Amino acid sequence: HPQRERGVVARRLPRRAETMWEQLATPPGLPPAAAVAPFLRPPYAGNAMLLRRPMGQPARIETIGEGLQAITHLRRGEYQPDEGGMTALGRQMVELCEQALAAATPQRLESERMSQRPSAGRPHLLLRAVALPFAPDERGESAGVVIASWRKLLSAEETAALHRELAAAMDWRHRQRPRE
């Protein structure tokens, strides 16, 4: 079933990215900065963010996938933690990447129920993310990639509406049966 297969792939995306990162790492160090490119192409592209940190300068978001941008409200450019419009999840993704760069090791985030303030029209999410650090390039610029996957959960109102629709459909179906 194609839809089911896509769901499995999406759910495992952070783990697949981390496995690929481990294969690129050269013991005892990090993968080279040039190894970032495959993480910004499918199947990761829509769920990826590339954060660069030039020596002595603020971090900047160089690339962010469409799907990840939609749930974080992050934008390309210099990262401003106090910037309006960004979600708490957006800050958390950047902080996760900063932690990976500082520790020089992957950092993971798994959330069973990540609230995006549903009262503000944002969904509840099940989220998995991994931040992967890369060795500084020849200019000393650090780079980290975040790969995330998520599922949107229905709100209480949406769940109730779905139950009503299902009950109505079952009732209609039951009434369509020939009587014996």
Order of helices and strands: HEEHEHEEEH
* Helical stretch tally: 4
Looking across the biggest beta sheet, what order are the strands in? Answer: 3-2-1-6-5-4
Helix fraction bin: 25-40%
User: How large is the radius of gyration?
Assistant: 20 Å
Strand percentage lies at 15-25%
- Main sheet record: 6 strands, antiparallel
Basic shape: elongated
In terms of structural class, how would the helical and strand content be classed?
alpha+beta
Task: Measure the end-to-end span.
Answer: 37 Å
- Give the low-pLDDT segments: 1-9, 113-119
Total beta strands: 6
Q: Would you tell me the overall average pLDDT? A: 83
Written overview of the protein:
With about 180 residues, the chain is an alpha+beta fold. Helix content is about 35%, strand content about 25%. The protein has four helices and six strands. Strands 3-2-1-6-5-4 form a six-stranded antiparallel β-sheet. The longest helix is centred in the N-terminal third of the chain and has 23 residues. The N terminus is likely disordered.
